[in-house]
Amino acid sequence: MKRQLESDIEIQVKPLSWMEWGFEYSFERVRRQEAWFDSIMVAGIEKSIFGDRNTDAHNFTIRSTITFTRELTLQFYSQVFLAKGHYANYRQLMGTSEFIQPDHYDRNPDFNEQSLNTNVVLRWEYLPGSTLYCVWSHTRADEHEKYFTSLKTDFEGAFRIQPTNVFLLKASYWFSL
């Protein structure tokens, strides 16, 4: 029987009239959810493998908007997302709803994903309708099969992943006819 627990905490702070900050943490735990996770070949026929999956997901998010003037703003967004799953009680689908224990299954279907995404956008409306955007995007993502790790280990691991950084500049100009 599947069990599920979800919680969400969100705080919005506006310390000054021109500055907003948002902090959010959400958590989801699911236990004993029947789920497909692999296919194997048995006597030349592809068979689906199912198991009871336990998952934990944590989402830490920070957002901010700083308004210097009507024409100049800075926006910040950062998210650490952690999700992991463990499978037990493997079974092979035989027909539409009948299962049997697989003869052998020696792979580890567990997963542990960590990601960190950050975006900073500077927006300047240099003329009415004409805007310049400067964007920095920072991404870190990795996945492995170690389910039995602590939240602290997973959180710190997201910051140890090799990053990808992208810098963008976009300019638009409004022509009036």
3D architecture notes:
With 177 residues, the chain is mainly beta. The chain has a domain at 3-32 and 55-89 and 114-171. It is 6% helix and 72% strand. Strands 1, 2, 3, 4, 5, 6, 7 and 8 form an eight-stranded antiparallel beta sheet that branches. The radius of gyration is 23 Å and the shape is elongated.
User: What proportion strand?
Assistant: over 45%
The largest sheet, given as strand count, sense and whether it forms a barrel, is:
8 strands, antiparallel
Q: Could you estimate the helical fraction of the residues in percent? A: under 10%
Low-confidence stretches: none
Give a summary of the structure in a few sentences.
Helices cover 6% and strands 72% of the residues.
Features:
about 180 residues, mainly beta, 8-stranded antiparallel beta sheet
Chart the SSEs and their pairings:
Blueprint (H helix, E strand, L loop, with lengths): L2 E14 L2 E24 L2 E23 L4 E23 L3 E3 L10 E17 L2 E15 L6 H10 L3 E8 L6
Antiparallel strand pairs: 1-2, 2-3, 3-4, 4-5, 4-6, 6-7, 7-8
